[in-house]
Amino acid sequence: MNALRITPLDGVIVGAYFLLTIALGLWFGRKKIRSAEALFLADREATWPMVGASMFSANISSQQFVGQAGLAYTIGLAAGAFQLIGASCFALLAVFFVDVYLSLKLRTAPEFFERRYSPGTRMFVSAINIVMILAASIASALYAGATVLTDLMGLASTLEFNLAVAAIAVAAGTYTIFGGLRSVLWTDLLQVALLVGGGAITFFLTLSAAGGWAGVLSTTGGAGNSLWTVVLPWDHAFGWLPMITGGLVLAVHGHCTDHDYVQRALAARSVYHSKMGALFAAFLKILALFIIAAPGVIAAKLIPGLAQADQVYARLVSTYVPAGLAGLVLAGLLAAILGTVAAGLSAAASMVSYDFVLRFAPKLSEPARVRMGRGIMVLVLVLCAVLAPGIKQFKGVYGYLVQIWSLLAPPVFVCVVAGIFTRRATPRGAVATLTVGTVLGAITFWALGQPDVVAQLPRYLRSALNCGFVITLVCAATMALVSRSGGANPGANEVADLTAAAAANSMSPGERRKYRLTLVVLAIVWLTVVVTFSPWGVARAG
Predict the structure, then answer these.
(1) With pLDDT > 70 as the criterion, what percentage of the chain qualifies?
(2) What kind of fold does domain 8-541 have according to CATH?
(3) 206-234: string of b/e by CB count within 10 Å (b at 16+)?
């Protein structure tokens, strides 16, 4: 056993917050759940602050604090470029996708595929979504949370790590299973406040310890480049080219089509609240650049030579944040784990229920549907708790996440974009695209895990993001060629007509003005941050 890295007071605060989060989740979900829609969509009553905060909580959580801060420690603020791309994609969700999803009155994101293409494509995409949520959201959140807990408590054995995974799974599952999405939404609203506050405390205290901006702006990487730029050379694994090609595909898929985010948009009480919730999440994503990635860059100066980069954030907190405050920061970090696990748990169980079970048992009563949904959540938690320890074999949790997301996203991305923006895409084209893209993704995932194979690849294809973009191009060509051969296409007109009607009548004039003003402000803030933290801004001084 290693030395305890936090004080007993901090340990008490962390434990108390875990219990408080569970209690609040159960309290907010105390209203008896009488239907599957209440369990999975909170009766579609959510307001925009709840929608946005829950999207952010589902997206950020512990794997970002652990994995992205660790990546920033190695490559610099460019690790946070994912936050900026994610912010732009939440805006795309508001501008292009919300009208489609709400006009179709979807219960799950994959249901779009049945309405636009065919029942088979819906089940195919739902299966991909479920795999991604299990492997890349819930399991990784459990792994990241257990990494933080064991490091802070000085625990080193495999058994202790597995027990930490189990404890987090039980805590997160309790209020989600009994309170449903309503509990998740309310709890996320409170957790995000603590998450942002805790991240700000860590940023300012570590910045002060490093000598302020003047002391850290000169921080450089191994190649002598500034660590304060979000723009890296095109041939870097996270350079500007892979980020605006493969990274954008990955982000559109993740933020605009994955059910763990779309579920929150569907739970909104109106189109206005859904769109404004997505924009609120976008602003929070920009803020995350400073409370997650920036501390990792500061750590490169304060604690150089750390063997395991995924320990960076926890080490900063335990070293530079005073007792009591450290407990609050870590409480927010660890409570955010519950938010991500809860989000993935609710989304995965929703898709298993609606996209699979209820297709074959449509006459189940509402109480039976609720019991079934809760049972599925239990099974999902157990499976993810078993998968979580295996993430250790990857070089950092964020590398694991990017590799999975990059290679599974392309076929779904192509089908959704083609289905919304053109009437020419056909069911036959969608089946071919999903099949080709999934097979190529699986082969590439295996190849990138073989050092001998990677050494033989062109430099461009050694990045999962670049491989994902190439697969996207192949999928787009497949969709175009197969759709051109014809075939029935009954959903094209329905989706297009409903979307046009919804876009024209979804908001009042006052709501539309507020929405457009918010969109303009978001664009200005986004551009300002990109230019400032680039070779044309503060990074030039590095």
Answers:
(1) 91
(2) Sodium/glucose cotransporter (1.20.1730)
(3) bbebbeeeeebbebebeeebbbbbbbbee
